[in-house]
């Protein structure tokens, strides 16, 4: 497929929320959406960094505080929201903290932030999404989801915590959520499209974040040069998300097409067996409602 951000439609009059838009793939996603006319809300934990990113974006933007590791922060963000929402990009994430950590609500950090935070956010913003003519929800996963398993239902417990499998489970949870959301929207006959995407392997701050591998001494110093030499740019990594946000089919999963989906033009991405498990998706959905206290009403 030869799709590029130049193929984005005119988004004038549409409002988008991009979580984790202060840097990396989220920032480039916000930049392109704004360049094509959308009003973009940069929903970020670090407001200062988000304001700096917004200042460099040509278009209509605003910054809102959102910490996905806090269900109270997610609820506060949703309570402040007014009006229809055309596009929600569930992009923010934490990757492979070397030691077990928890959110303020007592969930393992990756599972609680990457999955439960976005599950709650989407559910609480559902009325705003359904108030838009043709809303979309894009959930950003990873090729690391292939390392996830049915153990995702255990929520990455401390007793068996290992950084990479825990991250894989959180990214598998993203995919299962996106698929189940589309099924429920279709069953309810509402104008809501759910898609998923992954960026391949990109040079972003996710690796150097102090919440992830950046907690290991030396990683934050050495990684930036290493990442730029070996991996595609964050700008290229945003392309699958942008395609999923505007052109992809309902329920689809988009990613790069070359070098085992690590880079290249956008197209259909491969799902693991667990990622295609409808029963697992349903069980995770029910569990997520119990854990967050958020239920979806279409």
Automatic annotation (TrEMBL):
Pfam families: adh_short. Keywords: Oxidoreductase. GO terms for molecular function: oxidoreductase activity. InterPro entries: NAD(P)-bd_dom_sf (IPR036291), SDR_fam (IPR002347). Residues 248-273 are annotated as: Disordered. PANTHER family: PHOSPHATIDYLINOSITOL-GLYCAN BIOSYNTHESIS CLASS F PROTEIN (PTHR43157:SF31), PHOSPHATIDYLINOSITOL-GLYCAN BIOSYNTHESIS CLASS F PROTEIN-RELATED (PTHR43157). Belongs to the short-chain dehydrogenases/reductases (SDR) family. This is SDR family NAD(P)-dependent oxidoreductase. It comes from Nocardioides luti.
């Amino acid at each position: 497929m030869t799709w590029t951000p130049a193929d984005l439609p005119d988004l004038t009059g549409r409002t988008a929320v991009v979580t984790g838009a202060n840097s990396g793939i989220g920032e480039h996603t916000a930049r392109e959406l704004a360049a094509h006319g959308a009003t973009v809300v940069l929903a970020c934990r670090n407001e200062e960094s988000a304001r700096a990113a917004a200042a460099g974006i040509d278009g209509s933007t605003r910054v809102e505080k959102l910490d996905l590791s806090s269900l109270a922060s997610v609820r506060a963000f949703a309570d402040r929201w007014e009006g229809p929402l055309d596009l929600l990009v569930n992009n923010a994430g934490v990757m492979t903290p070397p030691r077990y950590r928890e959110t303020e609500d007592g969930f393992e950090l990756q599972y609680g932030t990457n999955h439960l935070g976005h599950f709650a956010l989407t559910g609480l913003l559902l009325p705003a999404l359904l108030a838009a003519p043709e809303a979309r929800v894009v959930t950003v996963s990873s090729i690391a989801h292939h390392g996830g398993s049915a153990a995702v239902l255990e929520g990455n417990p401390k007793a068996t915590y290992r950084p990479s499998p825990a991250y894989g489970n959180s990214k598998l949870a993203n995919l299962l959520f996106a698929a189940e959301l589309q099924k429920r929207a279709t069953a309810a006959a509402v104008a809501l499209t759910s898609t998923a995407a992954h960026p391949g392997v990109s040079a972003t701050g996710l690796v150097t974040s102090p919440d992830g591998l950046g907690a290991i001494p030396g990683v934050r110093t050495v990684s930036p040069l290493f990442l730029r030499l070996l991996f595609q740019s964050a700008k290229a990594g945003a392309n699958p998300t942008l395609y999923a946000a505007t052109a992809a089919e309902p329920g689809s999963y988009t990613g790069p097409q070359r070098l085992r989906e690590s880079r290249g033009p956008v197209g259909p991405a491969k799902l693991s067996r667990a990622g295609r498990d409808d029963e697992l998706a349903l069980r995770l959905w029910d569990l997520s409602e119990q854990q967050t206290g958020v239920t979806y009403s279409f």
